[in-house]
Amino acid sequence: MVVKVFGDKGDMAKAAAEHAATSIRGALSRNDDARILAATGTSQFDFLEALTRSAGIDWKRVEMFHLDEYIGLPATHPASFRKILMERLILRTGIVKYHFLDGDTDPLDTIRRIGADLAVAPIDVAFVGIGENGHLAFNDPPADFETDEPYIVVSLDEACRRQQVGEGWFADISEVPSQAISMSIRQILKSNEILAIVPDSRKARAVRACLEGSLTPMAPASILRTHQNATVYLDQDSAALLTSAARITA
């Protein structure tokens, strides 16, 4: 795993987007299409903005999956990850093949259908974040490192739900759904390449735990250290608690 630290989150987002665009173009040069995995959340917005401005990508040949979605939240809600991806990625690029996780009708049917679509071929490049509690997708601690299921139903812990309130998506924790569909840890690790985009000081403790602490389900994103082609993009704020040995300043 490579860790890159940038002076501010704007520079970080731009560099991560350039890396992502290069990876997508490379996949398109080798295959008929490129399969990507996209994260949401406010920490991803600058990255997605920069990525959608990237030149030389035939987006109509890009197939998108996404990491997670709340159960019981309609796609019209501002916090819906389907809504965010539609507005910030799909409509801006013209992606025509995408697989949305429908968490407000039949989550188990969604898991079955999208899991089958996912199994057709590997993900070329995955874009992920790290939560304030160290979660990877919605795999809160203690995360399930063992299941081979591509998507699972998870219960969201209080720290995760409070993060959603803190980011302004909900007025109160009582409004935050208690369950979600999440891509499993093992499925994320099957991606050929993983880029983790993690800005802001509120992520600094989780970054330190996941990059310098024990590899443990209590710090779910620590599992990224086992992937042979993972790059973590940080800004100075999210990297503030790391030792110099864990930093590669870009």
Summarize the structure.
This protein has 250 residues and is an alpha/beta fold.
Give me the side-by-side strand order of the main sheet.
1-10-9-6-2-3-5
Residue fraction in strands: 15-25%
Helical stretch tally: 7
Q: Looking at CATH, which topology would you report?
A: Rossmann fold
Total number of beta strands: 10
Q: How would you explain this protein's 3D organization?
A:
With 250 residues, the protein is α/β, with parallel strands linked by helices. It has a single domain, classed as Rossmann fold (3-Layer(aba) Sandwich), CATH 3.40.50. Helices cover 31% and strands 18% of the residues. The protein is built from seven helices and ten strands. The protein has helices at 9-30, 45-52, 81-93, 107-118, 158-166, 185-189, 204-212; strands spanning 2-6, 34-38, 62-66, 68-70, 97-99, 125-128, 151-155, 179-183, 194-198, 230-235. The chain has a seven-stranded parallel sheet, with helices on both faces. Strand 2, helix 2 and strand 3 form a beta-alpha-beta unit. Helix 1 (9-30) packs across helix 2. The chain is globular. The model has no long low-confidence stretch (mean pLDDT 92).
